[in-house]
Each structure stands twice: as structure tokens, then as C-alpha cells.
Amino acid sequence: MGMIADERRRLADLVESLSSEQLRTRSLCEAWTVKEVVGHLVAAVAGSNGAALLLLVRSGFNIHRANARLAAQMAARPAGELAAMLRANAENPFRPPIVGYPGQLTDLQVHGQDIRRPLGLPHDLQPERLRVSLDFLVGGRAVGFVPKRRPAGLRFEATDLDWSWGSGPLVRGAGEAVMLALTGRHAAFADLSGEGVAELLSRTK
């Protein structure tokens, strides 16, 4: 929970540092701008449950469509307000089912890179937090993050962390790139090497 709270505060600092043009930049989540990604992360802890349920109903119970609409609604607020909401909810103890706190931490780290990479900003990820997310993504509980078949039969090695997992054709690279590739971000594949990279890429299409 302490890691999550700190990541929310760091994201708030980042949001306040961005220009209007940067906030309008297309993120690695291709359907969302940088500001809409921030809106999604704010909505996860600061949105009204009743409003979220109503949007889900109006979206035909399609959770991805409802999520996109909720993110867009949040993103209509001023950036400073979104940053303030992140800080106000930094220590919000909400624990989502199945994915739990590791899922929340991973959501913050992955979406943080969805923002930073297109803007050419350093990732500034903390090794111990990145390790938690890598363990989560290959651990079978990452519902909505990684289909179970995606990492199956492959070996992953982080070149900048004491972390590896699996057996089979190798996928090797910095922990940040491995995390993003596991979650289907094609922009990270250029930073990977090994005979398993092509197979992993084929599983993200």
C-alpha cells in the first residue's frame, strides 16, 4: 500500500508538470490521450461507484467501453484537479478483487509508462516495485492485464533486475520493457532480445 500511495503522488507531480500539448498526446493506450490515462487512474480510486455502475449499464455491461467513458469523463476536468484527486486518494485502501494491491501497483506503473514513453520522459521506476509487478504479471492472477497463454512456455529475464521466470525460448530486456511487453505494449518490443520475442509478439496481436 505504501508503494501504491507513493506512485499516486509521483503521478500527481508528473501531471502538474505537463503542458496542455503533452496532455493531449496519444498514449501507448492507443484509444486514450495522456490526460485520459490519468483520468482512468483517478477514476479507479476517486470515482463514484454509483456513477460507474450507471455507465456500465449504459455501455451494455461492456466493462472496457464503460471504463473508456469513465476515463473520458474524468479527463474533462482540469489537470490540476486530477492531480489533487490523486493526492487526496493516495492512501485510499480500496483493494480490488482478484488482482489486489499488486494489480493496483502494476496498473500505476504500466499506465505511467503509457504516459512517459510517448513524451520521451525517463521511466524512473523503482526496482523493488517493478519486481512486484513482474511477479504479478506471470503469476496467474493478472486478470485483465495478461491472458494466461501469453507468457506460457517462454522464459523471461530482466537485465537490470535479479528477476527471471519460466522456461522455453528466451525474452530478455530491461524490466520495464518486459513489463510493457507482457501487457501488450508493442512499443517495448524493440528493446527486447531473444528467440522468444517473435512468439510473444504474435500473442499480443
How would you explain this protein's 3D organization?
This is Maleylpyruvate isomerase family mycothiol-dependent enzyme. This protein is mainly alpha-helical. It contains ten helices and three strands, in the order H-H-H-H-H-H-H-H-E-E-E-H-H. It has a three-stranded mixed β-sheet with strand order 2-1-3. Helix 1 packs antiparallel against helix 6, helix 1 runs parallel beside helix 7 and helix 3 packs parallel to helix 6. About 8% of the residues have low confidence.
Major sheet description: 3 strands, mixed
Whole-number average pLDDT? 89
Rg, rounded, reads 17 Å
Note the overall shape.
globular
Percent of residues in helices comes to 40-55%
Percentage beta strand: 5-15%
User: What's the quaternary structure here?
Assistant: single chain
The strand order across the widest sheet is: 2-1-3
Find the structural class using helix and strand composition: mainly alpha
Low-confidence parts lasting 5 or more residues at pLDDT below 50? 48-63
Total tally of structural domains: 2
**Termini distance?**
33 Å
> Count of DSSP helices?
10
Strand segment count: 3
Order of helices and strands: HHHHHHHHEEEHH
InterPro entries: DinB/YfiT-like, Maleyloyr_isom, MDMPI_metal-binding
Protein name: Maleylpyruvate isomerase family mycothiol-dependent enzyme
Pfam families: MDMPI_N (PF11716)
GO molecular function: isomerase activity; metal ion binding
